[in-house]
Amino acid sequence: MKPTREVLLDALETLLLDGGSSAATLEAVAAAAGVSKGGLLYHFGSKEALYQGFLDRLLVESKAEADGTLAAPEGVVAAYLDVSSVAEDPSTRSVLAALRLAGVQEVDVEAALVESFEYWYEVISRRVTDPVLARLVQLVGDGLYLHALIGTATREQDDEVVARVVALVAEHERDAA
Amino acid sequence: MKPTREVLLDALETLLLDGGSSAATLEAVAAAAGVSKGGLLYHFGSKEALYQGFLDRLLVESKAEADGTLAAPEGVVAAYLDVSSVAEDPSTRSVLAALRLAGVQEVDVEAALVESFEYWYEVISRRVTDPVLARLVQLVGDGLYLHALIGTATREQDDEVVARVVALVAEHERDAA
DNA sequence: GTCTATAATCGGATAGAC
DNA sequence: GTCTATCCGATTATAGAC
């Protein structure tokens, strides 16, 4: 069975996605995780500690996901763009939840997201030698994140965009060789 | 002198950008605008009304901004990507503030942002005939929005990306002719 | 490790004076 | 059109039992 700490962080994530930061009260998180407020406060001594725990887990997860794409058969570019556009992907869920948390005073959400995005950029750069093209790939992916955040998915069309970007990268790498 | 309503909405915007939705309490907004809580509640009868007023203004502003780019000498594509990447642009500030508001229960922030993004897409489409390419332009711009939101601006490099995208569009339009 | 009860504070909203 | 005073509910956090 999952440790209570993880269950609490899962509950926080779901509440953030459903109702934003104001919905993620200690009582609501505790209830969603099936424990009492006191039970939550045993694991995370304050709201700040809870939020920080969530950001720490986010970084571990997203770096692991980024590393994983290096071995992906479809390539890093397609893998990143795919991850970014699937709102149900566990790693994407965490990022979207963190975006909903952006701006709160308790923790530095932006710093955590910056670290995650920079890590992704480095991973992309290992397969896309032209830095401008690597940045373009990242920006398209992050645009997909933003659209996932507000729920505007134009799935079929976005698949075509992804294919176009992948082709663009392949073409450029061929020219460089 | 600016009407109090506008001053209040400006104050809300700044507070959202600085401290997220939880920092934008009625009292804080009123204080930042230089009026009392009671004074604010005369203009906006509830927090919901205040938020809705902000979203209404956002839509008017961003549609006007989109229309304006149709006459921009550098072209719609460059203009959109430029607007998206300059966090100080008034219209961009509104969008970034709205993103910080995403997920609150009082109003449908997502719907307003969707409407704004769709309007931009239509404007872009008037100059970029290939729908896949138009969507790509939009996604790059929205990626820039997201990076402006978390404060990762790589200005010089992003300018190069913008130039690359503009060239891509120009090339495609030439081929189509 | 988890619970209940409670303290202390804060936020949204109303009423009525000026 | 703006202010002060006040009420009420919600939220964070503590204390201490089990």
From TrEMBL, chains A, B:
GO molecular function: DNA-binding transcription factor activity; transcription cis-regulatory region binding
Keywords: DNA-binding
Bilayer-crossing regions: none
Residue ranges of every copy of the HTH tetR-type domain listed in the record: 2-62
DNA-binding region per Swiss-Prot/TrEMBL record: 25-44
Alphabetized InterPro entries for the sequence: Homeodomain-like_sf, HTH-type_TetR-like_transc_reg, HTH_TetR, TetR_CgmR_C
Keyword DNA-binding attached: yes
A family per Pfam: TetR_N
The protein's name in its UniProt record: Transcriptional regulator
Organism: Sanguibacter keddieii (strain ATCC 51767 / DSM 10542 / NCFB 3025 / ST-74)
